[in-house]
Amino acid sequence: MYSSSPKKGFLEVICGPMFSGKSEELIRRLRRAQIGQQSVISFNPGIDTRTPSHKIASHNGTSFQAVTIQSPEQMMNFITTTHNVIGIDEAQFFSADLVNIICDLIDSGKRVIVTGLNLDFKAVPFGTIPLLMAIADTVTKLSAICVLCGNDAYLTQRIVNNEPAKFDDPIIKPGAQESYQARCRSCHVIDKKPLWQKTL
Question: What does the longest C-alpha to C-alpha distance in the chain come to?
């Protein structure tokens, strides 16, 4: 006779380009969990200087208390057995160690909600987000509005010193005057295409 295994949790991934409302959707789900009397804790990466420390902040001004960490391993210093729901914002900035930690949390019965950019400014799969999408129980892929034509935007355009970033530019370019825009595939500009056999 088989013994019943402990109840597992599940993983939800919210992804899309910049300005698509990922953090806003994460905040909405975390607040609903709190209303449902669940114990919630959330995290954001210290590398994301656009977001105030100790907060998940959306572009529409809503925010949610968070623990700012530098590495995924630090989450385990804050998560207790009483926490039911764990939110992780901007997960593309964390190392690949995040995946195993999330799987362990799911195995222990936690509901984990992750946001991140599924593609970088080159339109190439970004960090661990594609892998998390593959193993997730649910994936919500959001779109933004293209700033040039108004169509649905699924890509992020990076502007460095008033020019579209080059494909070979680093993901993070210290000291550069940079900004980001949501763009559709037709309006997205990059100087070369990825060689997919080298990225898979």
Answer: 67
Give 25's contacts (C-beta < 8 A, 6+ positions apart).
14, 115, 140, 142
Distances 67 to 26, 87, 110, 153, 179 between C-alpha atoms, Å:
15, 10, 17, 30, 26
- What's the CATH architecture for 10-142? 3-Layer(aba) Sandwich (3.40)
> Catalytic residue numbers?
90
Question: Quick one: 35 exposed, middle or buried, by C-beta within 10 A (0-12, 13-18, 19+)?
Answer: exposed
What's 165's DSSP letter?
P
d(CA 13, CA 135): 9
pLDDT in tens, 70-100: 999 999 999 999 999 999 999 999 999 999 9
Overall pTM surpassing 0.85 (yes/no): yes
Helix, strand, or coil here: 86?
A: strand
Q: How far apart are CA 121 and CA 18, in angstroms?
A: 10
Q: By C-alpha distance, which of 86, 153, 106 is closest to 10? A: 106
Domain ranges of the chain: 10-142
